[in-house]
């Protein structure tokens, strides 16, 4: 499971593998030194849409749109899963060990669905 819980100085990094789609540019997110990030599509229960670094290839569950707009504020972007059709959200104050879990489950963008993009 991917979680947003590192502080700024120890932030996790991903490699964005830009791929030219038929009408839009989308990316695969690869954990540095590891696997591609996947959104668990149609996973039962509360883990539906959970992001995990577990794939060795980029298929439909590993495709994401990175949407950066000046309306979001400086360096803020939204991430939308092409597999679920939803925005990635950070589960803030989620119970137990799942606090900070990243899931592609939101149909709207709020503060929990915005991420800093550096070096773009």
What kind of sheet is the major sheet? Answer: 3 strands, antiparallel
Q: Compute the gyration radius: what is it?
A: 14 Å
Overall domain count: 1
Question: Count of helices?
Answer: 0
Distance between the termini: 25 Å
CATH 2nd-level architecture:
Trefoil
Shape category: globular
**Strand and helix order:** EEEEEEEEE
**Structural class designation:** mainly beta
The percentage helix is: under 10%
Beta-strand residue percentage: 35-45%
CATH topology: Trefoil (Acidic Fibroblast Growth Factor, subunit A)
CATH class: Mainly Beta
Spatial arrangement of strands, main beta sheet: 5-6-9
- Low-confidence parts: none
The average pLDDT score comes to: 77
Secondary-structure topology with pairs:
Elements: E1 14-20, E2 25-31, E3 36-39, E4 51-55, E5 64-68, E6 76-81, E7 87-90, E8 102-106, E9 115-116
Antiparallel strand pairs: 1-2, 3-4, 5-6, 6-9, 7-8
Summarize the structure.
InterPro entries: Actin-crosslinking. This protein has 120 residues and is mostly beta strands. The protein has no helices and nine strands.
Search tags:
globular; mainly beta; Trefoil (Acidic Fibroblast Growth Factor, subunit A); 120 residues; 0% helix
Give your account of this protein's structure.
The chain has one domain (8-116): Trefoil (Acidic Fibroblast Growth Factor, subunit A) (Trefoil). Strands 5-6-9 form a three-stranded antiparallel sheet, with no helix packed on it. The chain has a two-stranded antiparallel ribbon with strand order 1-2. Strands 3-4 form a two-stranded antiparallel sheet. Helices cover 0% and strands 38% of the residues. It starts with 13 loop residues before the first strand and ends with a strand. By secondary structure, it is mainly β. It is built from no helices and nine strands.
């Amino acid at each position: 499971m991917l979680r947003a819980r590192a502080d700024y100085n120890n932030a996790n990094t991903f490699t964005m593998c830009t791929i030219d789609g038929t009408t839009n540019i989308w990316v695969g997110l690869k954990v540095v030194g590891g696997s591609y990030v996947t959104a668990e599509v149609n996973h039962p229960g509360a883990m539906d849409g959970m992001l995990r670094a577990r794939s060795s290839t980029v298929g439909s569950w590993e495709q994401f749109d990175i949407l950066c707009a000046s309306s979001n504020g400086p360096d803020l972007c939204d991430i939308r899963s092409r597999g679920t059709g939803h925005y990635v959200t950070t589960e803030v104050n989620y119970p137990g060990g799942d606090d900070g879990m990243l899931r592609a489950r939101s149909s709207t963008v709020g503060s929990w669905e915005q991420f800093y993009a550096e070096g773009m």
